[in-house]
């Protein structure tokens, strides 16, 4: 029994040893398997990171796929950044170019605006020049027309005077041959003065050609017209002098009374042939009374003619009567002295007497009458 128990103990021991051996083998196998797995895992993980912290440690394994993905992501990020940078630079360059182009366009726009303003100003000035030219042209035409009309009027007056003087030449030549010849040649002399005077005054002046510049040179054209205007003014002034000379020459021999016989007068009594009580003092008055303010002054003939009366009258006192032909006669009364005699030939403006207060008079004055074919005329109509 004892042997059997020992044998059983030995068997148990062997079994335990066997089990221990198996356990050891199993453990070794397990360890080997774990090592194998670890080596396999180690082969799969490219980088292993061990992170330590207070509560323990942590291991991070980076596989090749992770690294490749990270590399691709990094490349994408870097490529995207580079592309973004390049795009930004390109956009910045385009923006700079656009700003420069905009600045140039604004500069060109300012230039165009300034040019437009200049053109508008030039257009306004041109329009003003054109209007001035039109006005000056009209003024020149009016002046030339006025001068021509004046010249024609003078020529007609001279011709009319020539006709009347020719009719009276036959009778006048028998009494005074020199005077008749002078009157007969008066129109010829006046026409000669008119033609020669105007020619001599303006003969040295020549008008330049107006249209010598292009259409847009209105200023030059205006200047030409200004010169023409000045030259025409000078010509007109010279012509006025000549016309005045002719007019004075005609007036000296004109047989139509014109103006009053005294200067610096006051009309004290007006013409009132019908005795209208509303005119002056209401009495019949067939002439006008020209007061000379108590001054004795010369009395001049108001037209050319022949003295037909120069004597004394109770009412008129000393008076002079002149026959001017064509039915006109004038009378100058209340004179202090007569300076002409019957038969004398006078011209307009010749002094024929001195004012006074002879006859039926209350003060120094000249009583002046005009008759046309025996009918008394109002001297105011012959001023």
Please tell me what the overall shape is: rod-shaped
Helical residue percent?
55-70%
| Main sheet summary | 10 strands, antiparallel
Please give the alpha-carbon distance between the first and last residues. Answer: 201 Å
Task: Report the order of strands and helices.
Answer: HEEHHHHEEEEEEEEEE
Total of DSSP H or I helical runs spanning 4+ residues? 5
Compute the average pLDDT.
Answer: 76
What is the radius of gyration? 68 Å
Number of strands: 12
Low-confidence stretches: 165-180, 198-216
Briefly note the structural class of the backbone. alpha+beta
As a percent range, the share of strand residues is 15-25%
Describe the secondary structure blueprint for this structure.
Elements: H1 2-44, E1 45-53, E2 56-63, H2 64-175, H3 177-184, H4 186-202, H5 218-253, E3 266-269, E4 288-291, E5 298-300, E6 305-313, E7 317-325, E8 328-338, E9 345-346, E10 351-355, E11 365-372, E12 375-377
Antiparallel strand pairs: 1-2, 3-4, 4-11, 5-10, 6-7, 6-9, 7-8, 8-10, 8-11, 11-12
Helix pairs in contact: 2-3, 2-4, 2-5, 4-5
């Amino acid at each position: 029994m004892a042997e059997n128990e020992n044998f059983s103990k030995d068997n148990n021991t062997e079994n335990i040893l066997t089990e221990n051996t198996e356990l050891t083998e199993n453990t070794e196998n397990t360890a080997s398997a774990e090592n194998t797995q670890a080596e396999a895992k180690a082969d799969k993980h490219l980088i292993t990171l061990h992170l330590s912290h207070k509560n323990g440690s942590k291991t991070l394994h980076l596989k090749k796929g992770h690294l490749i993905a990270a590399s691709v992501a990094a490349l994408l990020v870097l490529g995207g950044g580079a592309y973004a940078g390049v795009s930004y630079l390109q956009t910045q360059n385009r923006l700079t170019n656009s700003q420069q182009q905009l600045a140039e366009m604004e500069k060109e726009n300012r230039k165009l605006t300034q040019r437009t303003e200049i053109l508008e100003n030039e257009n306004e000035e041109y329009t003003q020049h054109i209007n001035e030219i039109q006005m000056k042209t009209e003024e020149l035409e009016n002046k030339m027309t006025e001068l021509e009309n004046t010249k024609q009027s003078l020529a007609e007056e001279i011709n009319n005077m020539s006709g009347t003087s020719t009719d009276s030449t036959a009778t006048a030549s028998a009494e005074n041959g020199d005077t008749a010849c002078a009157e007969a040649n008066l129109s010829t002399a006046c026409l000669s003065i008119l033609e020669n005077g105007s020619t001599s005054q303006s003969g040295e002046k020549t008008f330049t050609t107006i249209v010598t510049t292009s259409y847009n040179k209105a200023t030059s054209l205006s200047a030409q017209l200004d010169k023409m205007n000045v030259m025409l003014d000078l010509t007109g002034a010279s012509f006025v002098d000549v016309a005045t000379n002719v007019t004075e020459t005609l007036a000296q021999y004109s047989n139509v009374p014109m103006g009053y016989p005294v200067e610096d007068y006051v009309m004290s009594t007006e013409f009132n042939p019908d005795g209208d009580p509303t005119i002056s003092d209401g009495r019949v008055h067939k002439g006008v009374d020209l007061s000379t303010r108590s001054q004795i002054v010369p009395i001049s003939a108001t037209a050319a003619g022949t003295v037909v009366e120069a004597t004394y009258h109770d009412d008129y006192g000393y008076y002079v009567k002149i026959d001017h032909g064509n039915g006109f006669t004038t009378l100058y009364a209340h004179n202090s002295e007569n300076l002409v005699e019957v038969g004398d030939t006078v011209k307009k403006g010749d002094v024929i007497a001195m004012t006074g207060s002879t006859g039926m008079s209350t003060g120094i004055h000249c009583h002046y009458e005009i008759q046309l074919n025996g009918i008394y005329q109002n001297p105011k109509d012959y001023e």
